[in-house]
Amino acid sequence: EAQVTQNPRYLITVTGKKLTVTCSQNMNHEYMSWYRQDPGLGLRQIYYSMNVEVTDKGDVPEGYKVSRKEKRNFPLILESPSPNQTSLYFCASSYRGQGSNQPQHFGDGTRLSIL
Amino acid sequence: DQQVKQNSPSLSVQEGRISILNCDYTNSMFDYFLWYKKYPAEGPTFLISISSIKDKNEDGRFTVFLNKSAKHLSLHIVPSQPGDSAVYFCAASTPGTYKYIFGTGTRLKVLA
Hints:
The structure holds 2 protein chains of 2 kinds.
Chain A: E1 4-7, E2 10-13, E3 19-25, E4 31-38, E5 42-51, E6 54-57, E7 65-66, E8 76-78, E9 87-94, E10 105-106, E11 110-114
Parallel strand pairs in A: 2-11
Antiparallel strand pairs in A: 1-3, 3-8, 4-5, 4-9, 5-6, 7-8, 9-10, 9-11
Chain B: E1 4-5, E2 10-14, E3 19-25, E4 32-38, E5 45-51, E6 56-59, E7 62-67, E8 72-77, E9 86-93, E10 100-102, E11 106-111
Parallel strand pairs in B: 2-11
Antiparallel strand pairs in B: 1-3, 3-8, 4-5, 4-9, 6-7, 7-8, 9-10, 9-11
C-alpha cells in the first residue's frame, strides 16, 4: 500500500530535549516536505526537499533541521525544542514532475507537545 | 501576511445541494492551485488542482473555478454528500520553487 509513515504519532517532551520525527515514503517520490498545522494558521511549510541531498526552507524553518540522505526518508529534527513548537506536524511526498501541481501524499500527522 | 486566505472558517450545507468553498490570494505569480480535504486524525488528501492558465477544472462532483482578475478561486461540490464533511484547504505554489502556501481551511458540514 502506498503510504507516508510518520513516527511517533504523539510525543510529549520538555524544552531543550532534542527530538527527531521520522518520515518514510514507499512511492519512490523525489519531493518531500514538512508542514505544521496550528489553529487559525492552517498548514505552513517548514522545509522541503527536491531530491536526495537537496533541501530548502519553507515559510517557517526557524528551530528545525532536516536531512535527506535517502530518497525514502526525510526526518525532521528539533535540536532544542521550545513550547512554541507545540503543534501538529505533517510529512508529505510527491513526484516532482514538470511543475508544482503534483498532488502531495500526506502522513497521518505527529502531535508534538513541548512543555 | 497571509497570501492565501479562506475567509469562511465553516460552512453548513444540506445533503444534495451545492457546496461552494472560497479562497482568495494576493500573489499573482502563483502558477498552480490545489484543494485538499482533511478528515480528523488523518493527513490531508488531494482533491483537485488547476493551473493558473485555466479558469475551470472538473473532476466528477468537484469543480474548481479560477478568476485571475479577482485573485479568487472556488471549489464547487455538487451534489454534496455527508461523506464530504471535512476541512478543506486551498493551496498555491510559486513557480520554480515548489514552495506551497496553504489557506487556513474551511470546515464543511453536510447535513443529512
